[in-house]
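quick one
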Amino acid sequence: MSFSLPDLPYAYDALQPYMSKETLEYHHDKHHQAYVTNGNNLLKGSEWEGKALEDVVQGSFGKNAGLFNNAGQHFNHLHFWNWMKPNGGGSIPGELEKALLDSFGSLDKMKEDFIQGGVTQFGSGWCWLTVQNGKIVVTKTANGESPLVHGGKPILGCDVWEHSYYIDYRNRRPDYVKAFIENLVNWEYVAQMYSAAIK
Ligand code: MN3
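structure w/ manganese (III) ion:
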């Protein structure tokens, strides 16, 4: 199985004003495409050729940095497009909402911690809602890493590489992460990942 780039699940201009058409054109068509192309080149002839994506990500971590970076980013971006939707950030499905309240005490606290995670990730990386030891926690990772290689299961991730926000927000990463959690998140998709993570 080789990697391939899926179409965005919405139009390029569907996330405006929170994420522009221009950002999505560069981010999806150029950046994600590059991870797919480079990942396929590095996968060819490696011991992970033909393996499922999550197995490539976990298997190559710490062993083959080039392949890991591209496979990790392919995994992260496949979900990232689905973690957003037009008119996102609305109500949270019941089972997930209950788990978030159990873990954070309030939805405001969850959002505050998530924004803080994104703002304090130094340099390129991601902030996450991660299922770990039966709880949902905020974590952050550098570059193409994800909770998958740190003993957790990601259910929501925000890309805080500059390519994800610089066109729209310039250096204002806090405003970008705040807009993401409040206005872009597709909570139905997060709930699906949560259900799969606790099985
Ligand atoms: Mn990206």
